[in-house]
Amino acid sequence: MTIERYETGPRMCQAAAHGSLVFLAGQVAADPVGNGVTVQTQAVLEQIDRLLAQAGSHKSRILSTTIYLADISTFAEMNSAWDAWVDRENPPARATVEAKLAAPEYLVEVVVVAARGEP
């Protein structure tokens, strides 16, 4: 089977697909400065939608998600964006943890594994 890579750079790609699975790199807001957790989460979820579409998938096909928060006290703020976005008929398995992210301006990072296919 062929491995497909999307938005490839010198260090990594933003998504990789093999067979029926799509793996997204950790997604952070493209413009995090001055934006809180809710806005950053909304931006990340838009990126996830775009990447899944490129790889032939959709949020209804997400199998597993790991959400990293720079400060776990912002859990409710992140969830406000998540709850407005997630496919309630097909919610993924999910873990949310507090972690030190790559740069202090990043408040949330999301990793996704999804099955390929349309909703």
TrEMBL record:
SUPFAM superfamilies: YjgF-like. Signal peptide: none annotated. InterPro entries: RutC-like_sf, YjgF/YER057c/UK114, YoaB-like. It holds the Pfam family Ribonuc_L-PSP. This is 2-iminobutanoate/2-iminopropanoate deaminase. It comes from Methylorubrum suomiense. The lineage of its organism: Bacteria, Pseudomonadati, Pseudomonadota, Alphaproteobacteria, Hyphomicrobiales.
